[in-house]
């Protein structure tokens, strides 16, 4: 499985179920040849270091010019397993290498 990975610090504003704005930091972005999809891993901005960091994987579907687009939830177990492998490999590199 080949995954092209990009590390680029970026903040995104998304809306929760109640319509509240929530700021997220992009932690990792990669393409999976296996699923022919782009993925983005987000973490809520402002999480304290002593708190466990909750990573939120999303499918990234860019618009026609490659900017913006939409984020969709990951729905299959196979995609979750692949994402866990990629994130786990990045965590093995060390936290300073994983963070954007």
Automatic annotation (TrEMBL):
Pfam families assigned: DUF1292
Superkingdom of origin organism: Bacteria
Cited InterPro entries: UPF0473
Ranges annotated as spanning the membrane: none
Cross-referenced PANTHER family: UPF0473 PROTEIN CBO2561/CLC_2432, UPF0473 PROTEIN CBO2561_CLC_2432
Family to which the UniProt record says this protein belongs: Belongs to the UPF0473 family.
Protein name: UPF0473 protein EDD62_0817
């Amino acid at each position: 499985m080949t995954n092209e990975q990009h590390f680029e610090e970026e903040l995104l504003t998304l809306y929760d179920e109640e319509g509240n704005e929530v700021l997220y930091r992009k932690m990792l972005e990669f393409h999976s040849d296996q699923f022919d999809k782009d993925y983005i891993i987000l973490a809520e901005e402002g999480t304290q270091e002593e708190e466990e960091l909750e990573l939120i994987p999303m499918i990234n579907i860019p618009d026609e010019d490659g900017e913006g687009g939409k984020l969709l939830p990951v729905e299959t177990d196979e995609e979750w397993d692949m994402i866990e492998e990629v994130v786990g490999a990045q965590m093995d590199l060390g936290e300073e290498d994983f963070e954007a």
